[in-house]
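sry for the spam today, last one i promise. struct tokens for design, 211 residues
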């Protein structure tokens, strides 16, 4: 139960920060710094209990990699999605509707949005597996910083294109806040879960002796 509570709390604060930074009036160019930072501190806060996933794509990667029981995956997903919904609700309570919800969407095809989400979700899951689950990095103290910085870099790089969710829980929160179009939601989820799975397979190919 402790693991699931930690996953709920961490995902709550991640999505709450995304919502309050991105819903207009937004935090502007510094939003990715806040989002990457809250993920970093929540990973440090809860990593020793639950692994600090806060992301169904990361949970998928860790499960395929073999570092968590498959039976825990559904409960992790539920805790993360619940945290996302409550985080989005708290953000909505403070900031209300997105003031630019009716503004024209960026001129990007769905394939471009999905590709952007796939690339950095893969990067995030790949970094998590290497810094937080690899035997050669056991006991390190930099994993939270590396994970948070990956999200920050992704948010700066492709955030203006796809919104920079890299996380089905964050995508769910953004969907409820009107930040992701209805027709894009399931495509984001699929791309992110597939990216997490691919990261796990790549890790296993590159680290065949790390069981």
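last one done:
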């Amino acid at each position: 139960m402790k693991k699931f509570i930690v996953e709920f709390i961490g995902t709550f604060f991640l999505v709450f920060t995304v919502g309050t930074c991105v819903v207009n009036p937004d935090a502007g160019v510094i939003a990715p710094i806040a989002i990457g930072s809250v993920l970093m501190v929540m990973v440090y806060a809860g990593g020793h209990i639950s692994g600090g996933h806060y992301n169904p794509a990361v949970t998928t990667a860790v499960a395929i990699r073999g570092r968590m029981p498959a039976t825990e995956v559904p409960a992790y997903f539920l805790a993360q999605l619940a945290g996302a919904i409550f985080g989005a609700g708290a953000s909505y309570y403070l900031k209300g509707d997105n003031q630019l919800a009716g503004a024209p969407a960026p001129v990007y095809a769905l394939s471009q949005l999905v590709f952007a989400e796939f690339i950095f979700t893969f990067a995030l899951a790949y970094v998590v597996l290497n810094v937080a689950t690899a035997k050669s990095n056991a006991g390190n103290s930099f994993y939270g910083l590396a994970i948070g910085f990956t999200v920050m870099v992704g948010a700066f790089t492709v955030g203006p294109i796809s919104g920079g969710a890299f996380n089905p829980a964050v995508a769910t929160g953004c969907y409820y806040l009107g930040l992701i179009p209805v027709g894009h939601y399931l495509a984001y989820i699929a791309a992110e879960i597939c990216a997490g799975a691919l990261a796990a397979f790549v890790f296993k190919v590159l680290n065949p002796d790390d069981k």
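The domain at 2-206 is CATH 1.20.1080.10 (Glycerol uptake facilitator protein). ok im logging off now
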